[in-house]
Design a protein that fits this description.
The complex is a heterodimer of chains A (867) and B (519).
Chain A (H helix, E strand, L loop, with lengths): L16 E5 L2 E6 L6 H8 L5 E3 H9 L8 H17 L4 E4 L5 H13 L3 E8 L2 H10 L7 H21 L3 E6 H7 L1 E5 L4 E2 L6 E4 L6 H11 L2 E4 L5 E5 L5 E4 L10 H13 L3 E3 L3 H10 L10 H9 L3 H12 L4 E4 L4 E4 L13 H9 L2 E5 L5 E3 L2 H4 L5 E4 L9 E2 L2 E3 L9 E7 L3 E6 L42 E4 L2 E4 L2 H14 L14 E2 L12 H10 L4 E7 L3 E8 L2 H7 L6 E4 L10 H17 L2 H5 L3 E9 L1 H36 L5 H23 L11 E10 L2 E2 L5 H14 L8 E5 L3 H16 L4 E6 L6 E2 L2 E2 L4 E4 L5 H4 L6 H7 L5 H22 L4 H15 L8
Parallel strand pairs in A: 1-7, 2-4, 2-5, 3-4, 5-6, 8-14, 9-12, 12-13, 15-18, 18-20, 25-36
Antiparallel strand pairs in A: 9-21, 10-11, 14-15, 16-17, 19-20, 21-22, 23-24, 26-32, 26-33, 27-28, 27-29, 29-30, 30-31, 33-36, 34-35
Chain B lengths: L1 E6 L7 H5 L7 E5 L2 E10 L4 E9 L1 H6 L24 H10 L1 H5 L6 H4 L3 E11 L3 H9 L5 E8 L9 E13 L1 H15 L9 H10 L39 H8 L5 H13 L28 H15 L4 E5 L5 H8 L5 E6 L2 H11 L21 H9 L3 E4 L14 E5 L10 H12 L3 E7 L26 H15 L2 E7 L10 E7 L1
Parallel strand pairs in B: 8-9, 8-11, 9-10, 11-12
Antiparallel strand pairs in B: 1-4, 1-5, 2-3, 3-4, 5-7, 6-7, 12-14, 13-14
Helix pairs in contact in B: 3-7, 7-9, 11-12
The chains are: A alpha/beta (867), B alpha/beta (519).
């Protein structure tokens, strides 16, 4: 029993300092009038204290209404439960003198995997009586206090057994008044350590390989007089972190321990225990255990060491904390991994999980326990780095990484450099121990080695009764409503390509503010003015191709596709809602191949240092994808008009011939006939026949991503240069006309407007104006619109109708409201950047998919489609 | 935009009395969506032609948007054929401008109104996706001679073929009111999928014009009424029973009630549009094959019924205590499951809210209040916490889900059914489905049914290599299905056995193949 719990203390003692876990349960125990509320108010924040009197008041308007006690405690327990679940301190101010009252509180603490502390305030009966008498609302008799004191006396001895990890007993008012509280952080909480770290996988006595690996990482060794390493320090102050299982099976467990214990003692390393250390502790303490799984070798090797060394080993292993939470909570190291709700917590089951993982109790065909796939369910923000399960290769999976690459079984010893997230490994010098089952769980039973192919329905905001997806992006949270989420679920499920290919869906784009130029709805001047107003000087004007949006993801080889996307394919071209661009898989594959050739020819793989690349662009002609739409939506209108207008004209002419006054109607039909011809010219221009790849043109305007990076920070001149390079080497790729404009130079703006006018006069759709600095360009109010489109007046006929140029129609259309469209464009832009960033960081599939999916959900929002 | 009515009855100009419009004047009638003009290109005793010209004002059409029941905000609302085609919008004008003629009221010439007259009706652009055959099947049983010429799509797009418009001439000897009521009902019915009703009540009016009863507040087609006019607006003619006896009455009724599926549907339409594609067909496995299934002389239960029956038999044989129907569509199987009282728990899942609402209507006796018989159960309109609480205890439980996403709610069921579902997934998405169903949910029994491609040769009109349903991504031969199922069973620790469903042919096997996975 430690000093803090000794019941008797001399009166002259120093003021007591009571250790209390920062995250956990504190139960004040004392009779009515013992000063609990005063004590609580002095040492804890009001929000941390949950008092039974207060709860009684909340549920009955009378703090002393004993008939409300049941409800009051139900409320108290609920509040305690919630605070503990949220990782907060909960101080219970109630008499708590009966075991029954404390039992429920301890149960709640255990369920939340936090420690319980009891603070007993023991005052003489007379004092308590006197205090109660001063309080007119406490009218119960003296016998109550007597009974409470009796219960208290019986309680004190039992508190440890009831599950309180710490018990502080304060005797008498002086000791109570003098005591202070020391909030102790939970042992695993080392969030203040930010590294950089080198996290080392399961060593299992492979001392030579460990030395080699640490050498590779840049550590410099210190050695004892026999030349054995007893410490290692990184010249740049990096800290090594060992994931446990230092011992057993391998040739030199004592050597590994000597080195690691030295490093930890010198502050050069941290270490968490593995299940093998745990068993070693029991054996070193003299427990009888079967010396299996390589423990026999360790005991044999330790037998050659001194008694003192064995003692140090026992103390070292015994002192290890189940897991560590590092780097402000962004990194968690535990031997067998740890699910999110256990991070930073302390309880038997947390320790057991951290050491052994979660098991089903079943064993597989090799007699080893079947593990539950905690990593597959993992959705936490902290990276969890662990060991324990030998894998062929260390690979990130749902933001978790297993570093055990089976060195002792002849595999490799692997380390993770953090925050760089680089893997460094060395090969085993030999197979030191035959594995019980093949590495990597080839049997398929080790379910947490499955590839990251499945997304959970809850990741896309479906799965409970309140559908709706919400994504935290680098530029704030973006949400979509339930209806739109469900619409996106259907489209994504039924039509999209494999989600592993989807690292981006193109956001919608807002038009420039409405022009006041006569006869025009859109004009470049408004786009320039808009960017100028948001503080952006230089913009690029890019010709807008009238085709269908197409994102191309292209891999250099099968290995890249398998590593980053989908095995067995070499790329994809998908639409703005994630469907395969071409219904015919053969054509789809051919286009992918031609584009890959273009990337190869252009030398882009090497220039970008990548083996895959994603491009955003426009596939021409429009009719390649939209043939049925052109037929149904546009050409049909023309057909009906061409059939009906002449018939109407003839009927009117006959009536006019009879002297019936229908002149106005005759004029109207003539005007409509003319407008309809202009209308038809527009959609015909964007329709031409293609035969397989022949006739297709792809106009890329942005490099989205390549291995390890996204290009939101690259300026558009660079993007255009890449597109030009591709167009030079490939007949399939078409470049884009563009020019840079200083929005503060009126001449430049005017000349760009002329350029636009020429383009649209010769059948162009229009242009897009973008900040030259690229997708992440920032304006006066933060992230800028990535682009504004300025469409030509003739093109707009197929959007607003053949007759939209009639003055009275134009007047109405000028009132169009762009706010909603701009807002949507911005929200989708944030999601697009976020998806690319997550993919570049190699985040798990569900994290990328969440952001991509949200774009699709937003795309189904009702916005005027003509904008 | 144009209809001409010609008669050669003598004196032909009496047409003016029947139409209540003077042959020597041009008259205009303001409509909420434009102006209707009536004038006479010819008017002699031998031959008289009246023209109804509808000048649709696109802007006015937009102003009425709030009451137009179309996929809202769809681009089609702004650029469409309404100003030119003789379509549903046209019939609205017809019903208003020629109201008395439609009713058969004529004070000056009451006898004439009751007399069949030689008539010729011409419309230059009638939308009809079924083509000339469809028009004939609609008008010929009513005594018309039909002349229908397809309108070419666009001279500027050679090789694109004809449009879905017909230049239509109807000739026959009928009462004028009868002739107009035929147009009034059949023009919108021919008008393809997209209706542009000005008001929902118009639907009911149109139906009544043909003598079709409309159940108040219920959105399923009522059976054709006996011919008693039920109209409230006096819109109907005295002899409206013609629709009840029309051989195509079921088709006509269905066209009216098509595609009124609420908000999520319109959201889907927007997504389709964003993608430069036309709106998708609903994906309900229930109605597949109906068109192509070989007809048998003595018709037994349909293949769909046999399939659901076979699934039920397997579930009973496996003593399943709880069943989840993944991809339940509009609830064909659920309907049978709820009748099996030995099942403790039944769950229906579909990725389509539209399907799920239909399934709900099929298995729920009524849960709404007032005029609405059913409450919205999914999406944002799904009501408060109590409604959600109820949904959990409902039998069957229904929720929106997708087999290509892992879903904890799939768990806790003894058996899962994937009836005609896998062939609706792209092959590249099958692994995700396998992982979600066989790897994650892992029910004791999984029943999978899918078409047997070999059997397709027995379907008349099904071209070689084409599928039974436009949404099928593949159809497997028996060998292909076995290959897939054996692998999936092996990887996930199941045994699988195979059963034929439907009439077995010695060479090609049965139309549907079934795999029963157990573990």
């Amino acid at each position: 029993m430690s000093g803090t719990e000794r019941p008797e203390r001399p009166e002259t003692a120093e003021p007591r300092v009571l250790g209390v876990p920062e995250m956990g349960l504190v139960v004040l125990v004392g009779v009515s009038g013992s000063g609990k509320s005063t004590f609580a108010a002095r040492h804890f924040a009001p929000t941390q204290v949950i008092s039974s009197d207060h709860c009684r008041g909340v549920v009955s308007d009378d703090e002393n209404d004993q008939s409300a006690s049941a409800d009051a405690f139900s409320l108290l327990h609920t509040v305690v439960d919630i605070r503990l679940r949220r990782g907060l301190l909960a101080v219970v101010d109630a008499t708590n003198v009966q075991a029954r009252a404390r039992q429920e509180l301890v149960r709640i603490a255990k369920a939340n995997d936090v420690l319980s502390t009891a603070i007993v305030l023991d005052v003489p009966e007379a004092l308590a009586r006197e205090r109660n008498r001063d309080r007119p609302d406490r009218d119960f008799g003296d016998h109550v206090i007597r009974r409470q004191r009796r219960d208290l006396k019986q309680s004190v001895r039992r508190l440890r057994r009831e599950g309180f990890r710490k018990v502080h007993v304060l005797r008498g008012p002086e000791e109570i008044d003098a005591a202070t509280i020391d909030l102790e952080r939970a042992w695993p909480d080392r969030t203040e350590l930010t590294g950089p770290f080198d996290i080392v996988g399961d060593v299992h006595g492979c001392r030579a390989e460990l030395e080699e690996l640490l050498g590779e990482l840049g550590y410099e060794f210190s050695r004892d007089d026999q030349g054995r390493p007893v410490g290692a320090r990184h010249p740049e102050g990096r800290t090594a972190v060992f994931v446990g299982d230092l011992v057993d099976r391998g040739p030199d467990s004592p050597g590994v321990l000597r080195l690691v214990m030295g490093m930890v003692a010198d502050g050069d390393a941290l270490c968490v225990p593995g299940n093998h250390e745990n068993k070693l502790i029991r054996v070193l303490r003299g427990a009888t255990a079967r010396l299996t799984h390589g423990l026999a070798e360790t005991m044999e090797q330790l037998a050659g060491e001194s008694e003192e060394f064995r003692r140090r080993v026992l103390d070292f292993c015994d002192g290890l904390v189940s897991h560590l939470v590092l780097d402000g909570g962004r990194l968690v190291v535990a031997h067998a991994g740890l699910k999110e709700e256990y991070h930073g917590r302390a309880s038997g089951r947390v320790r057991s999980f951290a050491l052994y993982g979660e098991t089903t109790g079943e064993t597989d065909e090799y007699g080893l326990p079947v593990r539950l796939p905690w990593a597959r369910e993992y959705r936490g923000g902290a990276a969890v780095v662990h060991g324990h399960t030998p894998m062929v290769k260390a690979e990130w999976f749902n933001n978790t990484l297993c570093l055990d690459t089976g060195c002792v079984f002849g595999g490799r010893l692997t380390a993770l450099r953090y925050p760089e997230r680089e893997l460094v490994d060395v090969a085993a010098h030999r197979t030191w121990y035959e594995p019980a089952r093949p590495l990597g769980g080839d049997s398929g039973k080790v379910t947490d080695t499955r590839p990251d192919t499945t997304v959970d329905i809850t990741d896309v905001g479906v799965g409970d009764f309140q559908p709706g997806v919400a994504v935290d992006t680098a530029h704030g949270r973006v949400k979509a409503s339930g209806d739109h989420t469900l619409a996106a679920l259907e489209v994504m499920s039924r039509f999209s390509v494999d989600p592993r290919w989807l690292l981006y869906l193109p956001p919608t784009m807002a038009p420039a503010p409405t022009s006041t130029e006569p006869g025009l709805l859109e004009h470049p001047n408004e786009a320039f003015a808009s960017f100028r107003g948001s503080g952006i000087g230089e913009v690029v004007c890019e010709e807008k191709h009238m085709g269908s949006r197409a994102v191309a993801v292209l891999c250099r080889d099968a290995a890249a596709a398998e590593r980053r996307f989908v095995p067995g394919e070499l790329g994809t071209v998908h639409t703005r809602t994630g469907r395969p661009f071409f219904n015919d898989p053969v054509l789809q594959a051919e286009v992918v191949d031609r584009l890959r050739d273009a990337v190869t020819e252009a030398g882009l793989w090497d220039r970008l240092g990548t083996d895959w690349v994603a491009l955003d662009g426009e596939m021409l002609p429009w009719s390649a994808k939209a043939r049925s739409l052109i037929r149904e939506q546009y050409a049909s209108v023309g057909a009906a008009a061409r059939a009906a207008l002449p018939a109407a004209g003839a009927a009117l002419a006959a009536a006019a011939g009879r002297g019936v006054p229908v002149d106005d109607l005759v004029d109207g039909v003539a005007r409509r006939t003319e407008q309809m011809e202009e209308f038809s010219r527009v959609y015909r221009r964007y329709s031409w026949d293609t035969d397989g790849v022949a006739g297709l043109r792809y106009a890329p305007f942005m490099v989205l991503a390549s291995e390890g990076r996204e290009y939101g920070d690259a300026d558009h001149l660079w993007h255009m240069a890449v597109a030009e390079r591709l167009a030079e080497v490939s007949g399939l790729v078409r470049s884009t006309r563009y020019r840079v404009v200083d929005t503060t130079d009126p001449d430049a703006c005017a000349s760009a407007a002329d350029w636009w006018a020429d383009m649209v006069a010769t059948g162009g759709e229009g242009m897009v104006v973008k900040p030259v600095l690229g997708a992440r360009a920032r304006g006066r109010k933060g992230l800028a619109q990535p682009g504004l489109k300025v469409r030509g007046p003739e093109y707009l006929r197929i959007i607003y109708g053949p007759d939209y140029t009639d003055p009275e129609r134009l007047a109405v259309l000028r009132e169009r409201n762009l706010g909603r469209k701009s807002g949507l464009a911005m929200r989708e832009h944030k999601l697009g950047l976020e998806a690319l960033a997550r993919h570049a960081r190699s985040e798990p599939l569900w994290r990328v998919h969440e952001a991509v999916f949200a774009v699709l959900a937003l795309e189904s929002e009702p916005v005027d489609p003509r904008l | 935009m144009l209809l001409t009515i010609t008669t050669t009855a003598t004196p032909a100009t009496d047409l003016g009395f029947l139409l209540h419009k003077h042959p020597d004047r041009a008259q205009s009638f303001e409509q909420s969506f434009g102006t209707a003009h009536v004038f006479y290109p010819e008017a002699t005793d031998e031959r008289c032609t009246a023209a109804l010209l509808l000048d649709v004002d696109a802007q006015a059409l937009l102003r009425t948007r709030t009451s137009v029941s179309t996929p809202d905000f769809a681009l089609a609302q702004y650029v469409n054929d309404r100003p030119y085609a003789t379509s549903s919008l046209f019939t609205v004008a017809l019903g208003r401008v020629l109201r008395s003629a439609l009713r058969g009221d004529c004070k000056q010439r009451p006898e004439l109104a009751r007399t069949p007259l030689p008539l010729e009706l011409r419309m230059p652009a009638v939308p009809c996706r079924g083509g000339a055959d469809r028009v004939r099947s609609l008008f010929e049983p009513l005594g018309w001679t039909v002349e229908a010429e397809p309108v070419p799509l666009d001279p500027g797009l050679p090789g694109w073929g004809d449009s879905h418009y017909l230049s239509l001439t109807l000739t026959g000897t009928l009462r004028l009111s009868e002739a107009l009521s035929h147009l009034y009902v059949l023009l919108p019915a021919m008008d393809g999928n997209k209706h542009y009703w000005v008001d929902r009540s118009e639907v009911d009016k149109l139906l009544r014009a043909g003598g079709l009863a409309v159940e108040a507040g219920e959105e399923t087609p009522g059976s054709p009424a006996s011919g008693e006019a039920t109209g409230d607006g006096g819109e109907t003619s005295a002899d409206t029973g013609w629709l009840a006896g029309h051989p195509e009455r079921a088709w006509i009724a269905r066209r009216y009630l098509n595609r009124r599926d609420g908000y999520v549907r319109t959201a889907l339409a927007r997504l389709a549009e964003a993608d430069d594609t036309a709106e998708e067909e609903g994906d309900d496995p229930g109605n597949e094959e109906a068109a192509t299934e070989p007809s048998h002389e003595e018709r037994g239960p349909s293949l769909a019924e046999q399939r659901a029956g076979a699934v039920m038999a397997v579930l009973r044989a496996e003593n399943a205590t709880s069943v989840i129907d993944l991809g339940c569509g509009s609830g064909q199987l659920l309907e049978r499951l709820v009748d099996d009282h030995s099942l403790e728990r039944i769950t229906g899942v579909d990725v389509s809210v539209v399907n799920l609402e239909r399934a709900h209507r099929r298995v729920c006796g009524g849960c709404g209040d007032g005029r609405k018989r059913h409450r919205p159960l999914f999406g944002d309109g799904a009501g408060g916490a109590r409604a959600r609480q109820e949904a959990r205890t409902r039998r069957p439980e229904l929720f929106v889900g997708s087999v290509v996403y892992r879903d904890g709610r799939f768990g806790g069921h003894d058996a899962a059914v994937l009836m005609e579902v896998v062939e609706h997934l792209d092959p590249s998405r099958l692994p995700a489905m396998e992982e979600s169903v066989f790897g994650s949910a892992r029910p004791r029994v999984v029943v999978v049914t899918t078409p047997n491609a070999e059997y397709n040769t027995h379907y008349e009109g099904l071209e070689d290599g084409s599928f039974r349903h436009s949404d099928h991504r593949f159809e497997w031969t028996r060998a292909e299905f076995t290959l897939w199922a054996d692998r999936v069973a092996g990887e996930h620790g199941y045994r699988v056995r195979y059963l034929p469903v439907g009439p077995e042919h010695p060479a090609t096997g049965a139309p549907t193949q079934m795999g029963v996975f157990t573990r």
